[in-house]
Design a protein that fits this description.
By secondary structure, the chain is an alpha/beta fold. The chain is built from five helices and five strands, in the order H-H-E-H-H-E-H-E-E-E. It has a single domain, classed as Rossmann fold (3-Layer(aba) Sandwich).
Length: about 210
């Protein structure tokens, strides 16, 4: 009578090997799933939209009109010439100089700020060299250089604009808050006469690892 050796001694190592292989591959599969989920999240642009321009221009004009510096002014008041001198980008995103100045130029020529200029006898101007550079940069980028204008007037005030961003993280994702902060200084005293900031983009990006 021939005795056959038990097969369990061979089967057990194979089962253990398969189990170890499956266990080892689980983290890799999880990581792959997370990466695919992150890549699948659509990239959102931080460029300002038409709605952004309209909302910021309206809020900016209302804030200026109600400010202590301009509230009592009228079309017959002594003219103010506000020269837009500096634009800074302190956000986490790349913004070209032409994009930054194009935003400011379009705000300057918006209907709400033009109406404010007439009602309060205020003129927002840009330095001639900045206007020329902006036109050249826009043309180089394939856009049409608009005639933003730069009246040769003696400034009584200067304005600066700073683009900023803030990231708020939470367990399910993060929220990006973008806003532009403006400041107007009086030349004679170097004292700020108006400071305010306006949100221009709010974006929610899927998960925290995006």
């Amino acid at each position: 009578m021939r005795l056959h050796p038990p097969t369990s001694s061979r089967a057990e190592p194979r089962a253990e090997a398969h189990a170890l292989k499956a266990w080892a591959s689980a983290p890799c599969l999880l990581l792959l799933a997370l990466l695919l989920s992150a890549c699948a999240t659509p990239q959102q642009s931080t460029r300002m939209t038409v709605d952004d321009f309209d909302a910021m221009a309206a809020e900016m004009a209302a804030s200026l009109a109600d400010s202590e510096a301009l509230a009592q002014r009228s079309p017959d008041s002594e003219p103010w010439v506000i020269s837009i001198e500096r634009v800074l980008n302190l956000t986490s995103d790349v913004m070209t100089q032409s994009e930054q100045w194009s935003i400011i130029a379009r705000l300057r020529s918006s209907t709400p700020l033009r109406s404010l200029a007439d009602d309060k006898n205020v003129r927002f101007v840009m330095a001639p060299d900045r206007v020329v550079a902006l036109r050249e940069e826009l043309v180089a980028e394939g856009e049409q250089g608009e005639a933003f204008g730069s009246e040769r007037l003696t400034p009584t005030h200067t304005m600066t604009a700073t683009f900023r961003s803030m990231t708020r993280a939470h367990t399910t994702g993060r929220t990006e808050l973008y806003y532009c902060e403006f400041e107007i200084l009086e030349h004679a005293t170097s004292v700020p006469v108006w400071i305010d900031r306006f949100e221009y983009k709010r974006e929610a990006h899927g998960h925290i690892w995006d």
